[in-house]
Each structure stands twice: as structure tokens, then as C-alpha cells.
């Protein structure tokens, strides 16, 4: 009786979908869980319910996650629910534990080989043996390719064909990468070490090739739970299959719309195909979003509703559960410095109004974009932390470039234009201005140095002013020495340590996190989606990346992009993923007004349905303030009075009725029933002119006035 009561308490407070996931029968269960829908609560409650009801033993459950943080959170929640003894580990931690335990048996008494913390050193040696000179960034990219291949169960001799099929953006010719891969494997064996992929393979080999090991592992673990199943790679799936051994007591949790790590070998195909692989599987969809306001949820739904491809088949339309909040805002700026300064100013205002700095995030596509925001936040005296990367001036390539720039003052003529001098100096550290190299790390290094060139272009546009007397001065062009001093000043200002601050993070590193206020910046074509997204599948992954960013916000959401990278630069288009809103007018031109003026002139608001929270894109829907499929709450009596009033006014003015107000505007007035001028002018189609002509009369009608009081009936002569 006590056990039954405990298991029933686990169900308390769950919504109907969560309860369905928790109480699903033993066997294959697929939980499609959207962002903010309480997936961790559902999956831990399922484990606890099964244990407390006596259906399973805690020691027979293995819950697998992708991060140590997620595993720790799962263990903590299970403890709170009164369940101990469940193994909640990452794939790597679970495999390492098993390989270490069985090593004496599998290796004939020999000790388990040492596990490499990093591939970089051996990859650098392997590249040298293959005739390639590499720096640290290039070695990181080669290591990434080797990890992708091994996670995808690809051997060195199969790499060239596999890379071509996967349309990999390889750091070198695929044949050369295959040579490095093969040399790396040989070096590893000769040094008696293994890497993390070897460890997973060893766990698979131990189970698949040794019956006694398989029997012992499968006797220990009988019930499996896999979190973030859309991020599983083929090697991890192979290990999961070995653990299961043909059994099907498996619960997987995932969201295909958050598949953003395919470049590492992760694939959502196992999640997408789960119902076909396990006939009769229970599929539960969690769509109630407890994290974000309906306005944020509506925008996220609008963005992901345009998705195409296999992942879109499992797309979830979230339903916001929180009270309504502010509308997301879309801002357009003339250039990136103006965008960064406006973001910093808004962060300053939020902090001053009481929002903790740690509850604010600025998210961007690439780490190289962080410098402008580090500078702007520093100048606005807003503390910040960089998530998942070093601060701009702490990066190895930036420190090396600053050394090269200081050395170049002795070799480059002083009259050389600053941008030209900086480009010449950076060639000494291997940077070339024509095109970014292939490979993620090498490209990120290139973009960081390109950011220094952009800084030089901006700094060169501000000549130095030298006093030549009590009331006179003269301008002179900035020099490379001036620029070095400016970089040193910025580096010193941004090296101030902080404890809590605004989070600066790439969209990839933001996954799994959430904040009260989120700024999504740099949303222009070429940045999001990146120019390196060449296939339909790659573009769709970029869309999902924006979706992940949107769903990080609890309440306040800002989206922005700059029409040009730098003042006067080449014009850019907004990201194709943004809702197609009316963007009449143009962005403010930098330098056209005093410094005290706000950096942007125009604010484009994203209008959400006042009933369901979905983003409204069509003009008539935006006028009504609701989706065409949502129920109308029209005041029929008010609509009749508005209609009669319009007929009289149109007759008196001898114009068609629609010239006064369209039918859609009358419906919007009768549904939204504005009580103040501000509410009236918020309805699309009622501008300053019509407000002046008809505003007083409409407000009186809404307040209950009769048509005869507002517009006495008159007889008008109609000209033939």
C-alpha cells in the first residue's frame, strides 16, 4: 500500500501528455518532447513510477544522456522522487565503466590502455607523417573529421567515399585526410592508447563477441532510457543495440526540430524511424511549453512550420502555458556596431530595471561575432561571460595576431592605409583575405582575424585629432601604432573578471540552456544561414539552429540584423528564416544624427494571435489580432452599430463604404473593442489620418453610444 501511494504521488501535477508518457506500458516508448515541455520531469517520473510500483528494479535501469550535467540532473530528480540506485550516465561514462570492469577478461589479464584526453598531439604527428604541416586549428579540424568517421563507423580506407556521400566540408583533400586518419590509427596502436570512440567500440566488441560479457551486461541492465535521442550517432546506436540484445524495453526522448549537431555524426534518423523499427511502439507528444510565453512560442512555431525534410515529419506545434508576455521585437540596424551598441544599451536597461545579468543572453551564429558585443557591453558597464569559448582577446590566434601587428610597425611604411597594413601584417600568421578555409576550427580562426581587419576598417574611419594651439587642431590618418594601442586598450578593458554577467554564446553552445531575456543577433543571409550551408539538409539545420535559439527565451525576445557589416558596407538581406513582416521604410543611417540619438529609428513588432499565441503573418490576421482558425469573440451588436455608422458617414462623404473602414477593420473593432486611442491606432488600417477623422466617434460607439448620437441621420443628394 505504501509503495502504491508513492508511485501515485509521482503522477501528481503531471499534465495529460506527461502522464501518458509516465504510465506507458513496458516496451518501446518514444517521447517526442518539444522545448520547455518538461521532458526531464516526464522521463524521470517514468523511471520513478516503474520502480516505486514494483514493475522494475532500480538497479536494472540504465538512463543514458549526452552531458554529465544532464546525467547529474536526472540523478538529483530521481533522488527527490525517492528513487536511488538508478544508473544515469553519459554514453562515454557508461562504456568506460563497463570496459574497465571487463578489461582483465577481455584483454587476457593486461591492463586497459590509457585513454587519450585529446587527439590533437597524435593528429599533428599523423599529419606530419602524411606530409601536412598543421597548426592547432588545422589539427582540431582533422581530429573532428576522424571523430566523425569513427562515430559513423567509417574506417580509414572507406573515408573518401563516405565523405563524398555525406558532402563533408573537409579541411584537406579527402584522400589526404584518409592518410592522416590511417597514420593516426597506427600511432595510437604503437603508443598503446585509445580514444573515446575506441572505448565505445571496445564496449560494443566486448558484448557482441563475448557471450559471457553479453549475458552479464544484459542481466544487469534490462530497462533503458535515452535522452536527446535525436543526437545519437551510429556508433552510439550500435552500443545501445548491443546493450538491448534484441529486447525492446526502451524509452527514448527527443525533438527532431532540435537536431543541430549532424556535423559531428549525430543523426535524427533513429528517432524519426523509431515507430517503424519498433512496431506497436507507444508514441507520446509533449507540446505544452512551460518555459516561454505564448508570444515566444508563437514565433518559434512560425519559424519551424516552414521546415522541410525528414525531421519536419516529427515537427511539434507547441502550446504556450505561461501568461502572455511582451511581443518579440525585430530590429534592423545600419551596421553591426550600431546593432551591438543597441543590444548593450537594452541589456543595461534590463539590468537597471531589476533583471539579473545572468538571466540575459546574447546569442549569435559564430564565436567570431562576440567581439563587437564584448566591446559594447564593456563600454556600457554591463558584466558578461562567454559561454563555450574564450573571450575574443584571449584566443590564441588573436594574441598571435596582436604580436604580429606590433612587429609590423617596424617593417610596414607609416603612410600605408591602416586596413592594408593590417592585412599585410596578418599574412605573417597565415591569414589570407580572399576566402575562409574549410574546416570548422580553421574557419573560426580565419573569422576571428577577419574581425580584426573589420575593426581596422572601422577605426580608420575615425581620424586622429591633434591640437596645434589653444584653439586649433588638425586631423591625421590613424596609423598601425594607433591601432595597436586601441587593441591593447580593448583587451585590457575586456579582461576584467566577472562572476555573474550577461551570457554571450553561440547558438550551438546555448542548447539546453534558458534565460529570461534573449537577444538573437546577426540574423542576416550569409550568417544565418551561413554561406557554408550549401545543401537543402544543411540549410534546414540552420533553420533548426534559429529555432533552438528562439526557444531559449522565457519571456523577452529580441531579433536583429544589420543591413551592412560595417558603416557604408555592402548591403545584406535579412535571414530567409525570419517571418515575412512589413518592413516599410529603411534603417537609420549611421552618423546622420547626434550621438545622443537612439541608434535605430524603426521597430517592427511581431504580432501574435491574442488567443493561441501563434505569430500572425497575413495582413488580415494581423488586423484582427487572431488566427483565422481561432474562434471569434465578436460583439455582434457593436458590429451592427459600426456598420450602420459607416454607411451614414460614407453616404455623407459620397464615397464607397470601404474608404471609411474596410469590412475587416469593422470586424477587428468589434472583436478587439478598443477603449483608448492607443488601442485604436494599434489596429492595422487605422493611421493618424483616420484616427483624426473617425477616432472619437469609434471610441464612443465602442463605449455604447447609439449611432444617432454620433452621426444624426441626414438626407444626401446623389449627383447623377
TrEMBL record:
The lineage of its organism: Bacteria, Bacillati, Actinomycetota, Actinomycetes, Micromonosporales. GO terms for biological process: recombinational repair. It comes from Micromonospora peucetia. Signal peptide: none annotated. GO terms for molecular function: 3'-5' DNA helicase activity; ATP binding; DNA binding; hydrolase activity. Residues 632-712 form the HRDC domain. Keywords: ATP-binding, Helicase, Hydrolase, Isomerase, Nucleotide-binding. GO terms for cellular component: cytosol; DNA helicase complex. Residues 294-555 form the UvrD-like helicase C-terminal domain. This is DNA 3'-5' helicase. Residues 587-596 have a biased composition (Low complexity).
